[in-house]
Each structure stands twice: as structure tokens, then as C-alpha cells.
Amino acid sequence: MMEKYTSPLVERNASEEMSRLFGADKKFGTWRRLWLELAKAEKELGLDITDEQISEMKSNLDNIDYDKAKEYEKRFRHDVMAHVHTFADAAPSAAGIIHLGATSCYVGDNADLIILREAMELVKAKLASVIDLLGKFAKQYRSMPTLGFTHYQPAQITTVGKRAALWCYEFVMDYQELEHRIYKLPFRGVKGTTGTQASFLSLFEGDHEKVKALNEKVTRAFGFDKSCIVTGQTYQRKLDTMAVNTLALIAQSAHKMCSDIRLLANLKEMEEPFGKNQIGSSAMAYKRNPMRSERATSLSRFVLSLSSSPAMTAGEQWFERTLDDSANRRLVLPEAFLAVDGILEILINIAGGLVVYPKVIEARLNSELPFMASENILMAGVKAGGNRQQLHEKIRVYSQQAAERVKNEGGNNDLLERLKADEDFKDINLNEVLEPSLYIGRCPEQVDELIEKAVEPVRKANKDSLKGSAELKV
Prior knowledge:
single chain, mainly alpha, two-stranded antiparallel ribbon, 20 helices, about 5% strand
């Protein structure tokens, strides 16, 4: 039986790896590792902590009795103290030195930063796979002409590959921002109850250098090269804002790409992968709904809506801290990462299996090309000896007649036939003028430049983790 609500992000979207990052074992196992490294550093700096105590702590890092912790929390109404006591029960010789000199945020905040960093690294790896796949697709179709759109109205010709390059480049920008955020993310460090380090200064009998060394040792133990220069009780909640805002950038790019694919699916020019047994509609058996892209845009809106919450939380922190951040962060941080992880899984699936329909693309392009080529036709007519003003007027009249036929009669665009029947255009090779490749500008070269300058560096940096496809959970 499944009587209780379970998160769709975990059940339907996010990977097992990301789900475990925000699970209880990871969180409370990290707390215990933080207590262990604190005790080790305190021992190295001269506090009376024994090898036996360190050894017993080390042996019980993952031996977590959650039922006991739950009972302690019910009694104390304090999650950190509940786990201090639970750990002490598992490592009784160390009971007196676990959490020595520390505040709750020593484990809570530092663990959050460790998990945020790992989560961002996981997002970065998957984002690299999206960039890699879109780069390959863009290269494959770098020269295939297709009708461009502005305002969702026919515009100058682009290429299928160039359009994919636009999607790809936005993700490259997101990747660069994510790299920056990972690099700049600090550890909270060993700062004490309100960030003053007073408790540690007392433990080390006023020795400021030992307090500084303690902070540096624990910071390095968890792979950080810097810690916050100053904090209150918590690390600056602005760091959460920066992290979630970066996820929101990815959501924006995903929404843009998947919205384009949904429109192209309606035009029958391009489709996301469609399973052999996939059902598009319970009633309309013929339908091929772009459900992957729809899910990605849906999750993207959710992430975008979450991005305002950390900003409000950061602004609400009173003096050295207030606890109204806690319940909010327990929701926003995991869900933002779980949702983006799900989005990237979908994008890898889509980008690895995009289907292009060249004949449909060609037919739509040819239906609009005579209008778009009118200036080139005019110039060719002048070169053939015609009068510019006279030719312009004829093209204008014929264009309106052809448009009338298309809109009011449902006929084909017959501008080309009308021009061929006119004596003033008889010396022009209209088929040559209407060659689509004449109108794509530098699209192929722009795709090449993107791959060289942006996609290849991402590929090289992530060569061991790139995914060629992803299976969706549901």
C-alpha cells in the first residue's frame, strides 16, 4: 500500500544519485564526519582527545539508529542534539567530546554546503552531456536550410543546426555560471555559536592561531580551499540564492529549447523521441504528443518559481540568525536540485534522439522562399537589363496575388509561376536564384565556431562522464 504522499520529483523525475544526495543517510552521515574531523583537528591542536575516541567515532559513521534519533528529537525538540546523543550512544567513549565547542550550524550548514557542492557537480556533468549532444546534432545539420521565425512569423532562412546551436549556447552560458559558483562556494567553517569563535578561543586558552588552524584543518578536510571570512550563526543565506539562481538559469534554457521543440512538433519538422509503444492520447490514437518537452517545461516553471524563495529568506535573516529559514530551506534546496536533475535527464533523452523530417522542412521552406527571395529576384532582373522600378512593381503585385491565393483560396504559393510567365523575367534563372543555400549566411560557420570555442572545452573537461542517452523513470 502507498498511503502517504511521496514526492513526484523522486518517484518520477530525479536520478537515484541526486535523490541519495538529499537523503537522510547522506545528511546525517556527513554530520558525523564533520564531528569526526572536528575532533581530529582539536586533538592535533592539543585538546585532550584520545585515539580510542577518534577510532570509535570513525567506526560508527554510518551506524545510524534513526528510531533512536527520532525518540531523542521528540524529547529534545532539537534535531542536532538528537543526533549528538544518537552518535554518543554508538560511540560511548567519545560522548564527552562529540560536538565540542560547536553550534548546530557547524554540522547543519557545513553539511548543506558539502551537499550543495556535490549536487552542483552532478548537475554540471549532466549539463555537459546536454551540451555535447546538442553540439553533435548542430554539427550534423549545420547546413540544412530551414525557415526561420521571428514573432512566430516566417523570417529569413536559418539552418536546423544553427537553431540547435542557439539552444546549445544558452546551456554553455549556464555551464560557465555553474563552474563559477562551484569554484566560489566557501565552507562555513568552524565559527562557533554566533560566528565569533569564542567557544574555540576558550578551549584553546586564548590562542588565536590555534583557532585559525582549527578552521583551516576542518575546511581542508572536506576539500574546500576557503571558508567564509565572517559569519553569524549561519553562513550567508545569499549563497543559497546564488546556487538556486544558477539552477533557474538552466531551467530558463530548458524551457526555451523545449518550447521550440513543441512548436516544431506541431509543424511536423522535428520531434522528440517517441517510444514504439508510447501512447500520445487515451482518446486520439493518432497523436504524438511531445510529452518529454512538456514535462521539462513544466519542471522548469517549478524551478523558476522556487528561485524567489531563497532571496526572501536571505533578506529575512535577523542579526546573527533567525530560524524561519529552516523549514523553507528543507524544501527549496532539495526540490530545486531534484527538479533540475530531472530536467537534465529529460534533455539528455531528447537531445540524444531528436528526429528531423527534411521533406516537411523543405516543403515549408519552398512555400515561403519566393517571397523572401523577391529582392534577389529584383536584383537579378536588373542585371539582366530590366527597369528596377518596373520590376519592383510587378513583383509587388504578383506577391500580393500569390498571397491572396494562399490565404483565401487555400492554394499553393504560385509567385514563381507568375514571374516565369512574365516576359520581363524570362532571362532570369529563377531556380538558381531560389537555391535555399544562398540565404543561410554563415550559419554553418557559426555552428563550427560554437563547437570549437564552447562545446569542445566542455567535452574535454567532462570526457569521462558524458552520457549519450538517458532512460526516463516514467
